[in-house]
Amino acid sequence: MDFNRFDNTFFGLMDELVFQLKPEERIVLETVYEAIMDAGINPDQLRGSRRVGVYVGTTVYSNIDNKVEDTQPDVMTPMDLFTTINVINIKADNRISYVFDFKGPSMSIDTACSASLSALNVAINDLKLGNIDYAVIAGIHTNLQPVSVQIGQEGGILSPKGQSCPLDESADGFVKGEAVCCVLLQRRQSACRVYASVRSVGINNDGKKTIGMFCP
């Protein structure tokens, strides 16, 4: 992906507005358009519809403007993990609804590593309830601010060896990945193109664990 290239006139956005957008918020507009087109639907056919919902899974470190952009935890005072992970400060969901003129539900969902799948869960439930006919589900995560990696290092949640080993006894943390992706979800009987089906969804939490809340 190229962070420096974006055709804002294609999406009807002013230069002044786009200049202030984060790169991932530009890219998600492109991926939403691609997902709709790939489903065999002209995006113009969905404009003005209350039957299209937008669900964006993302995690944003919001109150880090005063943090030093230095990823050398061995020469710095350790950060307080609990004070650096705060509320979301992104409006990518509403911008998608604005650009494409979708009038259904529009929300960003932040459950950290599970944000995009949590967004999928909410979208599926809205489809089952009959609130919408189409669900635009996007996942956004970029590591453009070094401090976000530093927080993971100092919090002990990133793998020191830089390798993810899910469900393996050698696992010692995870590795931050980057993605800006989108899928268009709709009922099978009305779909022009089907790549996969969602059989079931669900969300739970482990509650209070003696080993701490950050352990999965």
UniProtKB/TrEMBL annotation:
Taxonomic superkingdom: Eukaryota
Molecular function terms from GO: 3-oxoacyl-[acyl-carrier-protein] synthase activity; fatty acid synthase activity
Keyword Calcium part of the UniProt annotation: no
Any one biological process term the GO annotation gives: fatty acid biosynthetic process
Transmembrane segments: none
SUPFAM superfamilies linked: Thiolase-like
CDD domains reported in the protein's UniProt record: PKS (cd00833)
Ranges for domain Ketosynthase family 3 (KS3): 1-216
SMART domains named in the record: PKS_KS
Record's keyword terms, sorted: Phosphopantetheine, Phosphoprotein, Transferase
Name under which the protein is recorded: Ketosynthase family 3 (KS3) domain-containing protein
Species annotation: Medioppia subpectinata
